[in-house]
Structure formats: C-alpha cells, structure tokens
TrEMBL record:
UniProt biased composition (Basic residues): 386-398
GO cellular component: nucleus
Homology family: Belongs to the cyclophilin-type PPIase family. PPIL4 subfamily.
Keyword flag RNA-binding: yes
Purpose of the protein: PPIases accelerate the folding of proteins. It catalyzes the cis-trans isomerization of proline imidic peptide bonds in oligopeptides.
Gene it is expressed from: CYP6
Protein's name in the database: Peptidyl-prolyl cis-trans isomerase
EC number: 5.2.1.8
InterPro entries, per database record: CRIP (IPR035542), Cyclophilin-like_dom_sf (IPR029000), Cyclophilin-type_PPIase_dom (IPR002130), Cyclophilin_PPIL4 (IPR035538), Nucleotide-bd_a/b_plait_sf (IPR012677), RBD_domain_sf (IPR035979), RRM_dom (IPR000504)
Annotated compartments: Nucleus
Comp. bias (Basic and acidic residues): 402-424
PANTHER family linked to this entry: PEPTIDYL-PROLYL CIS-TRANS ISOMERASE-LIKE 4 (PTHR45843)
Amino acid sequence: MSVLLETSLGDIVIDLEVDACPITCRNFLKLCKIYYYNLNAFFNVSKDFLAQTGDPTATGTGGQCVNAIINPKAPRYFVPELVPNLKHVQRGTVSMAVAPGIDGKFTGGSASQFFITLGNNIEYLDGKHAVFGHVVEGFDTLDKLNEVYTDSEGRPIKDVRIRHVVILDDPFTDPEGLVVPNEEPNKIPDDPNLVRIAEDEELFDDLPEEEAERQRRKAAAAASALTLEMVGDLPFANVRPPENVLFVCKLNSVTRDEDLELIFSRFGKIMSCQVIRDKKTGDSLQYAFIEFDKRDDAEQAYFKMQNVLIDDRRIWVDFSQSVARLNTHWSNDVRINRTHRKRDTFAGREDLVATRRYRASERDNEAGAYDLVFDERELEREHKDHMRSRSISPRRRSPSPSRDRYRDRDRNRDRDRDRNRRDA
C-alpha cells in the first residue's frame, strides 16, 4: 500500500505498514484522500536527522486526526501504535509524530503530523514516535531536502511544500461522514507572512560571470546614489542624467557659445549652449554643454559630431552624466529666452540675480545675452583692497592749497640747482 508525495523538490513514494499499524495507516490515507496534506510546508528540517510536515499551520502545534475532522466533538488525537520491531534504523523511515503528554512523556497521542528521517540509525526516536512506513523511491529528493538552508528554528529559508498527494493503493473503507472535496485547495493553509522565499523562486541565481558583475556594479551604484542623496549631493537617489544634453570637450579655447550653437543647430532646436568658463578670469575651460529640445536630435548630433574638427581641434562628444540641471537649487545656469530677448532668473535662484554673477558680452550686449563669469561685488571688493594697499583712498579727494604750495617750492628749488650747475 503506497502513497506518492509530489513535493517542490521532487517525488517521494512511501510504502505503508498497513498490517502492523492499521489505525495509523488508515488515518494517514484518509487525510490524504481529503487533500489535508496538500500545500503543507516542511516546517522543521534538521540536517541528517528529520524533515517534519503534516501541520497546516506550519507551527508544530496544529493538526488533527481524521475522526476529529469528521466529528468536531471527537478527540483531536488517537492512540499511537508503537510497534517494537519498527525502528528508525534506515534513512527514509516515516513516523507519525507523537505529542507529549501532560507529564512530559510522549503519551499525548498522534494527529496528522509526520516526519521522514534523513539519517541512519536514529535510535533516539525509537519507542517515542510511531513508525508506519518507509520511503522506497525518491531518495534524491531526500538528499535535496537534507541540504536546504534553514533559519534558527529549522524552517527552510526557501519554501518546501507538498504540492499534491496521490494514493496508489488504499485497502481501508471510508469512515462514515467522510466528505471528499470536489477540488484540491489552491491556497497555502499556513500564514503567508511566514514564507521567506517562495518555492518557485531561486535562492541563488547561477548567472554568468559578466551578468553577475553587472548586477554587483548596479547594486554598488545604487548604494552610492543613496549615500549621495543622504549627504545632499543628489536631489534623489534614482535620478538620471538628461538624455537630451550633450557634453562636448577638447574644445579650442577660442571657441565661443554662438559658434557651437551654429554648428550643432543643424541637428535640431537647441535650448541652450554654454561653454564653461573660469569664474574669475573668464577663460574657456574647453568643454561645453548643449541642450537639445528633443532626445532624437541629441542622439543624431552624438553620432555625427564625434571627432569633428572645430577651430583646429577635434572635439569629443558624449551624453552628459551630470544631474545638476535636474536640481535647480544648485544650478547656476543662465536661462536666456532668445525669442523675446529677455533674461530669466538663474534657474529660479534670485540670490544669483542679486549678486549679478554675469557680465554682458561685447557681442550680445544689445541682445541682452550674458556669460557666466564672475561676481561684480567681488571685483569691487578686490579693487578697494588694491587701492588700500597703495594707501590711496578709492574716492577722489579735492585739491589741497597747502599741498600745491609745497610742490611749487620743491619745483623752484630743483630749477635753481640746475641753473647753478650750468653756470659753474
């Protein structure tokens, strides 16, 4: 008399000792018939010891015998059949768990929980739990079950469940009142919050080295982005650079904004084109950012303008990796509306407008265009410091009569000295 357990790790075929343990085998077979064990979890797995299941609550405290299911007033447990010559000698021995009695001894009875031994010669269990069957097929499944990762309480980290039970042979008649459900259950009976990793998910993905390295770098980048968000360098961790902005470098120092804009405008509408300059000197740093209206225009310019000769320099074009434009709190860009000849604020920062961190370019002075160069108030302070170092007040003083008189005296004295030298 056999039963097939279809588990998430493989199939297990159990031969039952129906002659030596008729009460236990009858209870087990009838529970299988009403799908009582379907979707039950192996909630207690100990390496080289045992794997326990048969509790719908997956806590080790639930379960009831078939008589209690038919008649709720019937006892939850039945008297276990402890046969002396059925011992836990071989791996794959199937035993009905015996709940401890009030006195602490294993005299409480059996209900639905059972276990399969994963090691040989476990004499400790003899006389304490009721052996009623042996595994005859599926030892490779037991090997997999023996190697699962478990938590501190013995529950597998990745769920291991009985998916389906097939009764190969049942010699017992059904008890009166036994009702077989029309369909098998499709919902796990225990608490879903206890599930760590679902049985259809992979605990460790066996990925190629390149893919594994890519995922490690992605995780490291995500962690770094989160750190930068926490310290305030990024507006939010999952920010991405704009896809319509190009970074152009290796420029000639004489290349101007309007030159680049004219060259790149053939690919589409340009929202802004800025050669980055030194704040104090105004010299070009030989790189620029070009913002297109559309992403497709930026892509076309990227492919067409790579290594193109501009002002005797072969430029390098790439997509911008900067996210400064997405965070207007730190942006110092000057936004210019060339259509209406109107200068807007510096990305909404009125403090930059107040300090006038710009100067009118000679070419576009009438148009109202500005280049981001330096702070006029800072120049004024530097001028005052320079004048103070020469002990000259920055303000022009009115002429002093006494000072003019002494100056005329010195001039007349020098003239008389020169005349005397010529006469001599």
